[in-house]
Structure formats: structure tokens, C-alpha cells
Write a structure and sequence with these properties.
Layout lengths: L8 E5 L3 H13 L3 E6 L2 H11 L3 E5 L6 H12 L5 E5 L5 H9 L3 E4 L4 H12 L4 E2 L1 H13 L10 H11 L4 H7 L4 H15 L4 H10 L6
Parallel strand pairs: 1-2, 1-3, 3-4, 4-5, 5-6
């Protein structure tokens, strides 16, 4: 059964233009209007403020501050924002973080087109949507609270962890997040303690094994 999104204003945020094109075609085919496209978290924040869309569809992994940090900032500035987060990874860690940070929905990019449209519609109605394939993992992670060592990281530490694991320097992260290098260094110290890692390369390995980034 086709899903009607007639008249909904959607903002797309993904750093791959071809992915945005695919989403645009699906959304417009269902009657929605794509009012803007962003290629980074910073751009998504700026466009959200300008366009006030009904739903923001945003990828977790993008250049700069990335989708999760953008989500945290967006939720602080626009508490009523309806956000559907997307990821290429099927892991419980990021959905739990995203939902805590204010996302209403979370979906794996491997979903079928109809499922994507259904998720957008539910999020537009302020109804929680969680990828069915991830629901059990997320429930177990929230119940146990110890699904992964990275669960022990604070929100800010987790954001910094993802950035450093992707090879960004302490100074680059400090600049992107408007923090001092010493503050980022303190976060890094705590991250390494909690994850039992000694350097950025080991952080990258932990992130890849957890499905938080591509190998």
C-alpha cells in the first residue's frame, strides 16, 4: 500500500548527493515537498532554522560535526523538531543515542522504500518509529545498560569519540565544536580510560567493530 505524504515539507541531510536524490524522488512521489538539502550537520542546522520543515531526515554520519551532534544542537534550539535519523549500520548503540538526543525515528538505510515513507509519515505525526530489525537490540541495550563499553561515555564524550575515531585531530574537533583543545583533550583522556584504548587508531578499531563507521 502506498504511503501519502501530501503537503509535508521535508529537509534532507546526507553528504551523498545521489542518496539525497533517491530520497527526494521517493518523497516527491508520495506527495511531499523537499524544501532543502544539506550535506553536513552544520548546513542542516542552518537550513532548518531558515525553512522550518515538518520533518528533517538526517544521516548519522556526515562531515564536520556529524548528524548526532547536529541533532543535539537542533533539539536544544528547536525542542519540537521532528527528526528521522538514518544510518548505514545495524547496531543498537547509535539508535539509543539518537533517541536520547531527541530523534523521533531511526531507520537503517537498507530498509525498503515503503518502510522509509512510513517512517517519515509517523515522525511527521510525532509518533516514534524504530527500524523493526533494530527494535529488539535497542530494547535489550536499554534494559541491560551495558551492551557496549561506549555506553559508558557521556553524550559529549561519545560525539568526540566518533570524531576522533574518524581520524580528526583534537584541534579540528575543538574548532568544529567551539571548544578549547584542552577540553577536547580531557574528553579524549576519559574516552581512552573508559574504552581501554591507548590511541586514535585503537578508537577507530573499536568504532569499526561496533558498526559505528565503515572499515
Amino acid at each position: 500500500m502506498s504511503t501519502s505524504l501530501s503537503g509535508l515539507k521535508i529537509l534532507l541531510a546526507d553528504d551523498h548527493a545521489i542518496v539525497r536524490m533517491g530520497f527526494r524522488l521517493l518523497l516527491e512521489g508520495a506527495g511531499a515537498v523537499v524544501t532543502g538539502e544539506a550535506g553536513s550537520g552544520e548546513e542542516a542546522l542552518r537550513l532548518y532554522g531558515e525553512l522550518a520543515p515538518d520533518v528533517l531526515v538526517m544521516d548519522v554520519s556526515m562531515p564536520g560535526i556529524g548528524g548526532l551532534a547536529a541533532l543535539e544542537r537542533l533539539s536544544a534550539r528547536h525542542p519540537g523538531a521532528r527528526v528521522l535519523m538514518l544510518s548505514a549500520h545495524q547496531d543498537a548503540l547509535i539508535p539509543v543515542r539518537a533517541l536520547k538526543a531527541g530523534a523521533i525515528g531511526y531507520l537503517c538505510k537498507r530498509c525498503l522504500p515503503d518502510e522509509f515513507l512510513q517512517a517519515v509519515r509517523q515522525v511527521s505525526q510525532q509518533r516514534r518509529y524504530l527500524d523493526p530489525e533494530l527494535a529488539q537490540q535497542v530494547a535489550l541495550a536499554q534494559i541491560s545498560g551495558t551492551a557496549h563499553p561506549a555506553d559508558t561515555l557521556t553524550e559529549k564524550e561519545f560525539t568526540v569519540f566518533l570524531q576522533l575515531a574518524q581520524g580528526r585531530s583534537v584541534n579540528q574537533v575543538a574548532q568544529d565544536f567551539h571548544l578549547s583543545a584542552s577540553t577536547v583533550g580531557t574528553h579524549l583522556y576519559h574516552i581512552k580510560q573508559k574504552l581501554n584504548a591507548s590511541n586514535a587508531a585503537e578508537l577507530a578499531v573499536i568504532a569499526m567493530r561496533s558498526g559505528l563507521m565503515e572499515a
